[in-house]
């Protein structure tokens, strides 16, 4: 039999809209203002701390660090993570049964979905969402139910807090069906910067216990919080029995390219995540696991966690000063390194020419394009992280990443002063 379409892609990769990263990069290349100041993607503009870099170099000199690691991760890293997180969980985490190492948090979450989602199962996520969740849930055949966070009602006129992006618990309850298998939480949240309060997490946890729903708690920004931070897996034994907590060495140690992540959870969940991970990529990068282990072992001695939080908070304050100066409202983050600014007051010139694939997208895509072309500053349009139905909730905002060197932040601020002439 002759196969008519040998290069026909599978549905899971075909027919996707041009993604935001491609659009932003295309604009950045086309912009007359060069070089662009990239405040868009959430990668760090500086190196991991020296003690972690040195550990990576040392690891490359060790024979066993250049070979396969055990599929569940290197014992040294699992122990370092268990030791570092046991105090937060108020109990001893077993490194052999309750921790599994993955190729970044992203592949860890894919492994969790692959482990528990069958075709037709439903997964609840909040909007705006981290975009990788979607394909990760759809690959094993899951169906997504979306529950939007409600933006602050006065977010277009005054400075608000990320806490003002609220969850409608009734809407969450209504999204639960007999097919609901999992819910994905993200705190500190990308892109909102919200740190879910203890009472919000208790309410979500109670619903999950009542309906027997697994909780995938994406806590990759867990060391960057500026208000009290609660981990849902610590709230009660009943909630802990349902919870997988996700972490990322890339986010913790400014090394997003290292692709080292992990999940912590009860043995009856972790063993299936490990099984899926083994099938997806067998094991994760050995020398960088070793370096991450040293990172955890030495972080307190180096005062790294405190310094890292202080430094990011000061970058946030330094950058947000421009919005105060311009009188542009923003949502002050409670954690992480993203800030959402509301650009509703900026008037896009009439008849401004946008390429068709930008013109058809919501206003934030046009604003992002405009900023790159006219000012040479790249920021991310958050409606990329919404379904079409709820995109209107995000279209006045833009997301800026502040994990950049201070001179880059100052350069971006100087360029953003150019917005004045487009504001009435
Ligand atoms: C909310 C969230 N979860 C997960 C990830 C992915 O983490 P990793 O780079 O460890 O795969 C990111 C990265 O941007 C993120 O923002």
UniProtKB/TrEMBL annotation:
CDD domains in UniProt: AAT_like
Pfam families xref list: Aminotran_1_2
Example of a GO cellular component annotation carried by this entry: mitochondrion
Single GO MF annotation: kynurenine-oxoglutarate transaminase activity
Keywords: Aminotransferase, Pyridoxal phosphate, Transferase
Domain of life: Eukaryota
UniProt protein name: Aminotransferase class I/classII large domain-containing protein
Upper classification of the organism: Eukaryota, Fungi, Dikarya, Ascomycota, Pezizomycotina
């Amino acid at each position: 039999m002759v196969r008519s379409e040998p290069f026909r892609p599978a549905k899971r990769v075909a027919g996707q809209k041009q993604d935001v990263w491609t659009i932003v990069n295309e604009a950045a290349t086309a912009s007359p203002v060069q070089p662009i100041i990239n405040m868009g993607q959430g990668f760090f503009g500086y190196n991991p701390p020296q003690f972690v870099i040195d550990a990576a170099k040392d690891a490359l000199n060790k024979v066993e660090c250049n070979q396969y690691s055990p599929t569940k991760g290197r014992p040294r890293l699992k122990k370092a993570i268990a030791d570092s997180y046991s105090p937060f969980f108020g109990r001893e985490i077993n490194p052999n049964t309750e921790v599994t190492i993955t190729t970044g948090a992203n592949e860890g979450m894919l492994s969790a979905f692959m482990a528990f989602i069958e075709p037709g199962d439903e997964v609840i996520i909040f909007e705006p969402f981290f975009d990788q969740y979607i394909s990760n849930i759809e690959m094993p055949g899951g169906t997504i139910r979306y529950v939007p966070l409600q933006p602050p009602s006065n977010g277009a006129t005054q400075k608000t807090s990320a806490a003002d992006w609220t969850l409608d618990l009734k809407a969450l309850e209504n999204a639960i069906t007999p097919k609901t298998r999992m819910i994905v939480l993200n705190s500190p949240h990308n892109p909102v910067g919200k740190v879910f309060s203890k009472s919000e997490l208790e309410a979500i946890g109670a619903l999950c216990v009542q309906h027997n729903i697994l909780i995938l708690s994406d806590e990759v920004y867990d060391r960057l919080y500026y208000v009290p931070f609660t981990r849902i897996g610590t709230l009660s034994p009943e909630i802990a029995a349902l919870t997988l907590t996700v972490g990322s060495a890339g986010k913790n140690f400014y090394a997003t390219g290292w692709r080292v992540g992990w999940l912590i959870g009860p043995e009856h969940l972790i063993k299936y995540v490990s099984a899926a991970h083994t099938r997806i990529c067998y094991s994760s990068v050995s020398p960088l696991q070793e370096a991450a282990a040293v990172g955890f072992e030495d972080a307190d001695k180096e005062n790294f966690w405190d310094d890292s939080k202080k430094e990011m908070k000061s970058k946030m304050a330094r950058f947000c000063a421009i919005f105060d100066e311009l009188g542009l409202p923003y949502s002050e983050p409670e954690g992480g390194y993203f800030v959402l600014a509301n650009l509703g007051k900026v008037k896009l010139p009439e008849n401004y020419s946008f390429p068709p694939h930008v013109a058809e997208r919501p206003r934030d895509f046009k604003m992002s394009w405009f900023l790159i072309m006219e000012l040479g500053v790249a920021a991310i349009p958050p409606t990329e992280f919404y379904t079409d139905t709820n995109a209107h909730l995000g279209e006045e905002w833009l997301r800026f990443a502040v994990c950049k060197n201070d001179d880059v932040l100052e350069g971006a601020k100087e360029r953003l002063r150019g917005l004045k002439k487009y504001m009435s």
